[in-house]
Amino acid sequence: MNKETNNFHEEEEIMEALNRYEEMIRTGESAYFDVFQLEHIIDTYMEEGSHTKALNAVLFGLKQHPASTLLLSRKASLYVFLGKTGEAQSLVAYLMTIEKNNPELFLLNGTIHLQLQAYEAAENWFQQSLNSAFDDIENIHYQIGMSYAQVELFEKAADHFHEAQILDPSNESTLFELAYCYEKINKDALSVHYYQRYLDLDTFSDIAWFNLGIVYNKLQKNKKAVEAYEYALALTENFPGALYNLGSTYLVMRKYKKALLVFNDFLNYVELSEEVLCATGECFYHLGEHDRALDTFVRTLEMNNNYDPAWYGAGQVHKKIGNLPEALNCLRKAVALNGNFEAYWYLLGRIAFSLQQWTESVAAFEIACHLDPERAKYWLWRAEALKQQGMVRKALETLKKSLGFHPDKGKIRYRMAALYLELKQEKKALNELNIALQTHYSKHHLLYRMHPASKTNPAVQKLIHQFRNIQRL
């Protein structure tokens, strides 16, 4: 009889025992199980995440085999899973008086100390587990990785999963957990690598395709993300998470009609939420269906009046259709609910600018600059709002500050040259123009638009002609 046949008969025996155990639970009749059968019944429940069922099986088994260290060990493991660290610690201490060099007990002790946040002690116990094991080292590394992952110490977890996969490169569980941990610590390229290795072994894992899609989204590889979500949905049609992520990815890719279709499919499986309703409103807005967009945002706010993305969306629509006072009110609501999103402040600044409410406009652009200084347009609009109030020097100060984030931004240099010309500081204007022309000669028309008089300024024209001649060489 070969190994495959042995495994088949063993699995058959386990399933028979599990069915007999569950029949006993249903009928209330008593039945006998040996420790081997009980071990596999318990492990099956633990693998399913049914820890209460597993614990009940342990307690039942201990009535038949009260001295079984294996069942007592499983009981300690379940206490750890259920957060009963005190009971687990006492039970492990008792077991260690019987089996002093059991790697599984060292492992349990490590996991208990992790839950107690005694990290150094946990690491020592884990090392003892590895040192005392004669074989199955990869499984111990895997279990240590799982223990670290449960307390969200994903970097430590990844180290042990990595060791486990070196020892057993084709273990699917290890590859999956390693990919997941790398995703959590933002090592996204490695995460993709291990998800792909996992999928080479199990192509039909909808969860792996779904997780791979999430990592591709993080890497801004949206086409690949779409493919991953579509694979997940081909395997499991009613997979709401994959549908939602697919719709959101289409939204990012500006494929608004496709996004709408997917969000509608999503609503076949879940109740309508403000998040999904607002996303469909965004699609309608970008498709130019402003009445439907506004209606959708209003419906969203009827569900949750404190949902700031809906106030922002409604503000966008009102601005687009020219209803600026109502747009301003919407954006004020949005920033009051969420003052940490720079796009809200920027749009508030733009609307206030259009209404010539300069003080509010400047303040809004200032907050946008603070929240995201890497966006050059925030600085440029703040400078423009200051200029409109006649605060040209303050506008220049704003642009000088922006150079710390955008030293090579030609538009900022041209704007500074224009403002210096307005202040009659021609030497400083020419200096800024010279810098701008060196890297962005083709955009010198911006200066004419910002300061029309520069077209007839001899010094300005001379400098531009010099660079024109250089360009022709």
Give an account of the 3D structure:
By secondary structure, this protein is mainly α. It is 78% helix and 0% strand. It has 27 helices and no strands. The protein has helices spanning 3-27, 35-48, 51-64, 69-81, 85-98, 103-115, 119-132, 137-150, 154-167, 172-184, 188-201, 206-218, 222-235, 240-252, 256-266, 274-286, 290-303, 308-320, 324-337, 342-354, 358-371, 376-388, 392-402, 410-422, 426-440, 445-450, 458-472. The longest helix is centred in the N-terminal third of the chain and has 25 residues, at 3-27. Mean pLDDT is 93; it is low at 1-8.
Order of helices and strands: HHHHHHHHHHHHHHHHHHHHHHHHHHH
Gyration radius over CA: 32 Å
For the biggest sheet, the summary is: none
Q: What is the molecular shape?
A: elongated
Contiguous helical run count: 27
The overall average pLDDT, rounded, is: 93
- Percent strand equals under 5%
Annotation, overall tally of beta strands: 0
Helical content class? over 70%
Low-pLDDT regions: 1-8
Distance between the termini: 85 Å
Q: Indicate the structural class.
A: mainly alpha
